[in-house]
Amino acid sequence: MLEPSQNNELPPIPGKRYFTIGEVSDLCDVKPHVLRYWEQEFPQLKPVKRRGNRRYYQRQDVVMIRQIRSLLYEQGYTIGGARIQLTDTDKEGEITNKQTLQEIRQELEEIAEILKV
């Protein structure tokens, strides 16, 4: 098991569009077989698969993997607990997005009223 202090020393994520499983393994300090296992356990983690079933991770996947790693290795969650924690975070994000959209719509309606005058 990795030591909790190692998460602070993870390298920055480069500005690339796609990452191979080896690159993600190095960026997140997690073995490739663990990444493949996490894909089965966490529905949020879905890398793009191309030629020969090769996995290509996007930036949001790398961020998600780091979040999963933190939940499991630093905060001590089980796989099931981490899955629930991530699902709760997604639901909170949906609520925030709906509120933001409502605020934007209201502001646009106010601007439209001003322009009519």
**In terms of structural class, how would the helical and strand content be classed?**
mainly alpha
By DSSP (H or I, 4+ residues per run), the number of helices equals 4
Oligomerization status of the protein chains = single chain
CATH topology tier name: Multidrug-efflux Transporter Regulator, Chain: A, Domain 2
Proportion in β-strands: 5-15%
In short:
By secondary structure, this protein is mostly helical.
Give structural notes.
- By secondary structure, this protein is mostly helical.
- It has helices at 21-28, 32-41, 59-74, 79-116, and strands spanning 19-20, 48-50, 54-57.
- The chain has one domain: Orthogonal Bundle (Multidrug-efflux Transporter Regulator, Chain: A, Domain 2), CATH 1.10.1660.10.
- A three-stranded antiparallel beta sheet has the order 1-3-2.
List the topology elements.
Elements: E1 19-20, H1 21-28, H2 32-41, E2 48-50, E3 54-57, H3 59-74, H4 79-116
Antiparallel strand pairs: 1-3, 2-3
